[in-house]
């Protein structure tokens, strides 16, 4: 699954560690999602959506 996570995170000036703390996950999880090696669970996808104020579809592309 393709995603815009790194682009969106950087546009807000957030580090991977800051985003991980907001989401309650490890920095490694954020890295893995950004690189497309890990697809987030639905609850985590909703937390990402809330953090960025975007729909899940705006962050992740099939």
Notes on the structure:
The structure is a single chain. By secondary structure, the chain is mainly alpha-helical. The protein has a single domain (2-54), classed as 434 Repressor (Amino-terminal Domain) (Orthogonal Bundle). Helix content is 61%, strand content 6%. A two-stranded antiparallel ribbon has the order 1-2. The longest helix is centred in the C-terminal third of the chain and has 11 residues, at 42-52. The protein is globular.
Could you give the topology of this structure?
Layout: E1 2-3, H1 5-11, H2 16-23, H3 27-34, H4 42-52, H5 56-59, E2 60-61
Antiparallel strand pairs: 1-2
Helix pairs in contact: 2-3
InterPro entries: Cro/C1-type_HTH (IPR001387), Lambda_DNA-bd_dom_sf (IPR010982)
Keywords: DNA-binding
Organism: Bifidobacterium aemilianum
């Amino acid at each position: 699954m393709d995603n815009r996570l790194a682009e969106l995170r950087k546009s807000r000036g957030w580090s991977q560690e800051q985003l991980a703390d907001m989401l309650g996950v490890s920095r490694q999880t954020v890295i893995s999602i950004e690189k497309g090696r890990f697809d987030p669970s639905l609850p985590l996808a909703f937390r990402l959506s809330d953090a960025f104020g975007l729909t899940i579809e705006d962050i992740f592309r099939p």
